[in-house]
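Need Cytochrome c oxidase subunit 2's 3D structure for a figure. Predict it.
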Amino acid sequence: MAYPMQLGFQDATSPIMEELLHFHDHTLMIVFLISSLVLYVISLMLTTKLTHTSTMDAQEVETIWTILPAIILILIALPSLRILYMMDEINNPSLTVKAMGHQWYWSYEYTDYEDLSFDSYMIPTSELKPGELRLLEVDNRVVLPMEMTIRMLVSSEDVLHSWAVPSLGLKTDAIPGRLNQTTLMSTRPGLYYGQ
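Structure prediction for Cytochrome c oxidase subunit 2:
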């Protein structure tokens, strides 16, 4: 769960979120190295005299600054594509839950069971108990098993919504007339707030 003044991501609860955190660190390190190199080159340009005039005609330098960015982009693209395909993969889900977005609330339906559905309304600020979080607490929470593959079907009744649980690495758009699908699996028990 997030806490006040938090600078980083929430703790990962699913394998997908762990992969996203590793990819974030990987990409951030590449950006840091590129920024350091550019700062070093700029400081050299400002502090030294240019005495080697034939550098401007060097084919090797042009080849390097053409190929090096392509290699860097490949180093970023390959892990990104792997995670993209992992997020889209559905492996024989054990449970299917349908989430329907409404103007001020969500409706949930456990489709594997007959007549098991409920509405989830946000608790007004005036009715919050001590320790409950404003704009995150609801009257009916979705209860899901851990270490099981769960398929979420997300749609909307009226306007565009977004069904998101940051600690699981999920964010799926709820669009009227369209049924979007995502998969989740929690590796540890807990209370995870959506937004």
